[in-house]
């Protein structure tokens, strides 16, 4: 039932795509979570990933971000295999999740200092200054994260994710619970780093998801149900499939 | 029932029966002097059952840890099933050790329990492996259940020898009859024969149970899988 | 980023957070004192000379106190999804273990150092001054075992449905060999036993520590990630 599986005619430059996935499957025992997923994302690309809960989106991102091992197939992120070169890849990727990944009892600065030490970021103090300004949290740098609003926490999470200058960013439902002001800051930040950064974003927000992406994909039951470039995006087909698979309407 | 388990069970049963015969009719009786009479202490015969059960338990618990390690290394589901089956069999046998141990204690020393090294050790093993089952049942997700089970089976298996040594270390009233020492078994002839026959009988029997259990686990997993396939369509 | 710096960063983070709230340490300390009071009442009625069981009671109190602390230390990581943050960073999994384990060890030791004198007073125990050094060494050596096994098992237990309740079930049987040896050693020191026996127990504790540190090192990757 896979619709419109457009095979990517890649690389006019002949270079490898930033993210390459071929025949990726993940199962435990006999239960299949992902079945033969294949796609490519070029450097600077932005993939919006849609799908109902349990479709395998988070698992796919976890495999790409070294958190989970694949059962079958090949995966390449920034030219490296996440399973074999985990440590090397982690320096190049960042994750923004719906959990902030921040310690409530530490201040904004202490959180960033901690992650900075973990990633071995050079010139840490300057980098922290720079980022706190960018996310407009400079005035709250010594305050405990416990006292932050959801929007502020999200902004700090972005700063944390960008700390080590990753070239690939994974976003897991980043718009959840954000007020419009926070969304603005978030997206303007994304704008500033759009160039030379590759993104994969899981989202249920169709409007923002389609607006930001260069490619759109719908996952259903561990398989690709829809996959097109933004440029040739057939809006009707997308909506149709989305309605059927994600919303479960017939 | 699989052929191999049938064969093992039969061999085991034969050996066990032979062992019982040897234990009661061939092996020398333990004798006790009371007043001027010599009385046969039949409770000693439990030895031919109790010790093989204990050793079988230990074999299977260690196997459980071994298969757990293989599962983590190779990620093959079958290893996880083998680990689980082995721990189960081991656990059942540990409980048997406790039961026969209690009976023996009561028969020989008049009390139901004594806090001495080996009994205490097996009690600790019982509790530790009970924890194994509690752990598995309190994890929802299948892959995590298998992973944590395997990990704990390794931790527990490592702890088995440590618990034994600790018990021996702190002289917790060593009244338990010691037959096996570092100098070797202090048994001869008929006694040794009876013991070995029982020992092997028990092992064979336990292995047949193991194989049966493994089959059951695999069948159950296949059924679950088929069920899911039919539902999703 | 050297391994040492990363481990230190984890310990520093845990210490900072704890200094802020002091939740764990205060709770652990109160608990240990309360436990001692309860024991002295419960056993004091029956026994005239508590110094015979003093060694055992000390360790029971310490064990229960450490389970309290161990549970807490992972709650933060789990609750805010911080564990993922740690897993995403370019750090070797076993180093995460060492970082958490050293933090736990530190908190355990701090609470115990304050609790021990109180313990000696309440139970009217005596210890030759020359023995004090060995006594403290035994306690510290045992703490290493408690922290290692505890950190390993609490990482497992917070991933279960029953969370806090799971740790004692797993921890207590596994720690018994250590407990036996520790009670033997400290009890022996307090009742003026032959030092050779005490050293034998201490050697066992050291072996136990090494074995479980190795086990944790080998297994932690599997415990903490898929």
Describe the model.
The complex is a heterotrimer of chains A (250), B (233) and C (226). Chain A has eight helices and nine strands. Chain A has 250 residues and is α/β, with parallel strands linked by helices. In chain A, a hairpin with a 2-residue loop joins strand 8 and strand 9. In chain A, helix 5 runs parallel beside helix 6. Chain A is globular and about 45 Å long. The relative contact order of chain A is 0.19. Chain B has helices at residues 3-26, 47-74, 77-109, 117-137, 142-169, 189-232, and strands at residues 31-34, 37-40, 180-181, 184-185. In chain B, 76% of the residues lie in helices and 5% in strands. Chain B is globular, with a radius of gyration of 20 Å. In chain B, helix 2 packs across helix 5 (142-169), helix 3 packs antiparallel against helix 4 and helix 3 runs parallel beside helix 5. With 226 residues, chain C is mostly helical. Helix content of chain C is 85%, strand content 0%. Chain C has helices spanning 3-21, 23-44, 51-79, 82-88, 93-122, 129-157, 166-190, 195-224. In chain C, helix 2 (23-44) runs antiparallel to helix 3 and helix 2 crosses helix 5 (93-122). Chain C is globular. The two termini of chain C are 25 Å apart. Chains in contact: A-B, A-C, B-C. The A-C interface holds A 62, 65-69, 87-88, 90-91, 93-95, 97, 99-106, 110, 114-115, 117-120, 144, 160 and C 1, 5-6, 8-9, 12-13, 16-17, 20-21, 76, 80-82, 84-92, 225-226.
The beta-strand count of chain B equals 4
In quaternary terms, these chains amount to heterotrimer
CATH class of chain B: Mainly Alpha
Computed Rg of chain A: 18 Å
- In CATH, the topology of chain B is named Four Helix Bundle (Hemerythrin (Met), subunit A)
What's the total helix number of chain A? 8
Annotation, overall tally of beta strands of chain A: 9
Greatest interface by residues involved: B-C, 31 and 32 residues
